[in-house]
Design brief:
Blueprint (H helix, E strand, L loop, with lengths): L7 E6 L2 E6 L2 E5 L6 E2 L2 E3 L14 E3 L10 H4 L8 E4 L2 H4 L10 E4 L4 E4 L2 E7 L17 E6 L3 E4 L9 H4 L3 E7 L14 H10 L2 E7 L4 E3 L7 H5 L1 H11 L12 E2 L1
Parallel strand pairs: 3-6, 6-7, 7-8, 12-13, 13-14
Antiparallel strand pairs: 1-2, 1-16, 2-3, 4-5, 5-15, 9-10, 10-11, 11-12
Helix pairs in contact: 4-6
Organism: Rhodococcus wratislaviensis (Tsukamurella wratislaviensis)
Protein name: Outer membrane protein romA
Pfam families: Lactamase_B_2 (PF12706)
């Protein structure tokens, strides 16, 4: 990625990122409210204080902190929404968005404005709820324009990651979660640093940490909330990789 490529990454917190490339703005997993069920936004500005006007939305999977219907309803009603194949049948709440929905499978490309988005696998439970059939697989996405930006969504480290994404200019990698414990299907800072090497990222940016936290648990394991981004950057630096930690609301070009 060259300095004049005109690519801008704005982290709005958690897994919500604006990727602006070649004049097209892609918004990932939008959470634009102060609260998601039992989770409260604890850090960063109100996302709606700065108007959110994407050209398209990408949803990685159906969990409520990634497919958040109230936040999707805040986005202009002509914006296309890319979802994993089977998501509409698995979660009827999406049907309100009608023909704006574009269902994709891993390996499939879709053209959105001036960029091409390729869906890639993710190792994560893609269901809306913990029980029931797995009708829609979790996905990551690679946004290709002036640069190549890998949005991993939620995923565990997988040996095949280098096959999914052989290289990229920017990797947006989850390094934590929204509670004091990190369950399966996630990466911690150590495994995220290994992922950054696997996808040969020129620069990696940690996401999915330090934004949402359960109500009433502010004092429970605060390092799990604040620490993963900095720890990821330290591990990446030690491995000779470039990484940048953003604060919610901060942008990187």
């Amino acid at each position: 990625m060259t300095e004049n490529a005109g690519v801008r990454i704005l982290w709005r917190g958690h897994a919500t990122v604006e990727i602006t490339d070649s004049g097209t703005t892609i918004l990932t997993d939008p959470v634009l409210t102060a609260r998601v069920a039992h989770l409260r936004r604890r850090r960063g500005p109100d996302p709606m204080a700065d108007p959110v006007r994407p050209d398209a939305v990408l949803l990685s999977h159906l969990h409520a902190d990634h497919t958040h219907l109230p936040s999707l309803a805040l986005i202009e009603n002509d914006v296309p929404i890319v979802v994993p194949r089977g998501a509409v049948d698995a979660f009827a709440g999406l049907r309100v968005f009608g023909d704006r929905l574009i269902e994709v499978s891993a390996g499939q490309d879709v053209r959105l404005g001036s960029v091409t988005v390729r869906a890639v696998p993710a190792v994560h439970d893609g269901r809306r709820w913990r029980r029931g059939p797995q009708r829609a697989q979790a996905l990551g996405y690679v946004v290709e324009g002036a640069a190549s930006t890998y949005f991993a969504g939620d995923t565990a480290l997988d040996p095949a990651m280098a096959d999914w994404v052989p290289r990229c200019d920017v990797a947006l990698l989850p390094v934590g979660g929204w509670g004091p414990n990190l369950g399966p299907g996630h990466m911690d800072p150590e495994s995220a640093a290994a992922a950054a090497r696997s996808v040969a990222a020129d620069v990696s940016i940690p996401i999915h940490f330090g934004t949402l936290w359960p109500i009433g648990m502010d004092a429970v394991r605060p390092r799990r909330f604040h620490g993963p981004g900095g720890e990821f950057v330290r591990r990446a630096d030690a491995a000779g990789l470039r990484a940048v930690e953003l604060a919610p609301g901060e942008a990187f070009r």
